[in-house]
Design goal:
The structure is a homodimer. Chain A has helices at about 45-55, 90-110, 130-140, 145-150, 155-165, 195-205, 230-240; strands at about 1-10, 10-20, 35-40, 75-80, 120-125, 175-180, 185, 190, 210-215, 220-225. The radius of gyration of chain A is 19 Å and the shape is globular. In chain A, strand 6 (about 175-180) and strand 7 form a beta hairpin. With about 240 residues, the first copy, chain A, is α+β, with helices and mostly antiparallel strands. The two termini of chain A are about 30 Å apart. In chain A, the strands form two sheets. Chain A has a six-stranded mixed β-sheet. In chain A, helix 1 crosses helix 2 (about 90-110) and helix 3 (about 130-140) crosses helix 5 (about 155-165). At the A-B interface, helix 4, helix 5 and helix 7 of A face helix 4, helix 5 and helix 7 of B.
């Protein structure tokens, strides 16, 4: 559950978000139900646009194991049909508000993934366009070897870099740099010497892991959220019987 | 190791195949070394063509966890440069021979995957073209929920069908039928009643699992080989330290 308040055109606007679903979570949404409720006065077409933009940067940027389900739902309900609709500047702020609520809600899903011991944020920057950045981020997010490495607190930069490499996005190794929990591990196509024991201890001690990649092709970026892959996840999904 | 003999144009031809590599195995090959040796007299260009065809139906149709590595190699070595090259009909038979050797070799890789308890063969038929069939097969092969279901001997047709659905291949549910170890579980868009306990026992008792899907769009097909996902796989890859 996520709740935010803001004053838009003098209205005291509330937005409430609810979501469920922690497995069968793929990058194009999943067995997931999300509801966003607001009392802001906004035209249906503007609500749809605002929701599409928000979903693109939130629910489309999470995965647990990459399995897209048939049962995804994000519903936006707006009750105020009597007040005059928000002015353009308030509408822009409304779009920001709905994006913030959706991102906060979406992040909670892999954070609550089955058997997960780490919540992983993947940021990819310096890309030609957002599609390229997301393609790289999704490839890393859905990679079993990256996810098991994080579960084992292994600062395995090789698995991260090669998951970016096989993503289908076009780049040269020299264009790529990578950070793990803020520590540079790969720069312009070569490994950077780092204290592996300290980095491993940092992964083990914290529930949140940050993976950051930078290319040198442009200014587009994407953020993606996922969780690690643990033996407990396998047990939960192998012992589950239909 | 795979060895086959055949008589081509009066030559007693031997083909020997060797391969290693059981993890970081993705559908576009992986940390895998494969060598195929033969004493058949074949022109270099014909050898390359024969190898490309063979690899497309063998090493490009296996995965362990879908992680494509940077270190794949398939080498074909042919020593006889003095005899006149094989005639066209013998060359066609040679292409079959190399395909058989490569398929047999490729199948051994996921069969020997880390911590695996099941070797899974996925056959997709009735497609418009081979690319569509392979796209569906690969989506199922790399799906963590399908792989954990097989590890747990769960005849979970829903995970299989929805992995086909999100593969990106275009089809309607009514066009799809599916079999698990030869038992029909889904026909023309609806579940077929089956004895779940017997099917589960059959998966548990055998090391080989067969998943077959059929569309009604054409005559193209593809085969893909993979292994299940076990808690042991996660332990091996989480405890591995760089």
């Amino acid at each position: 559950v996520v709740s935010q308040h803001r004053t838009l055109d003098g209205h005291d606007v509330t937005m409430l978000g609810l979501a469920k679903g922690a497995a069968m979570i793929g990058p194009r949404m999943a067995t997931m139900l999300a509801f966003v409720l607001t009392d802001a006065p906004v035209r249906p077409a503007d609500l749809q646009t605002a929701l599409n933009q928000a979903v693109d940067e939130s629910f489309h940027c999470i995965s647990v194991e990459g399995h897209t389900s048939t049962n995804d739902t994000v519903l936006l309900l707006a009750g105020d049909t009597t007040s005059p609709p928000l002015t353009d500047s308030a509408l822009a702020e409304f779009e920001e508000l709905i994006r913030d609520v959706c991102i906060e809600l979406a992040r909670k899903i892999p954070a609550d993934g089955e058997g997960t011991s780490h919540f992983i944020t993947i940021e990819v920057e310096g890309c030609q366009d957002r599609a390229q950045a997301r393609q790289i981020a999704r490839s890393i997010a859905n990679d079993a070897l990256v996810k098991t490495a994080i579960a084992g607190a292994d600062p395995n930069w090789g698995r991260i870099v090669s998951a970016a490499g096989y993503s289908g996005a076009s780049f040269e190794p020299q264009e790529l740099s990578a950070w793990l929990n803020g520590t540079p591990v790969y720069r312009a196509g070569a490994v950077v010497p780092f204290d592996a024991e300290a980095l491993s201890a940092g992964i083990r001690e914290r529930r949140e892991t940050s993976i950051r990649l930078r290319l040198t092709q442009g200014n587009a970026s994407a953020r993606f959220w996922t969780c690690d892959l643990t033996a407990e996840y396998v047990r939960l999904n192998a012992d589950y019987t239909t």
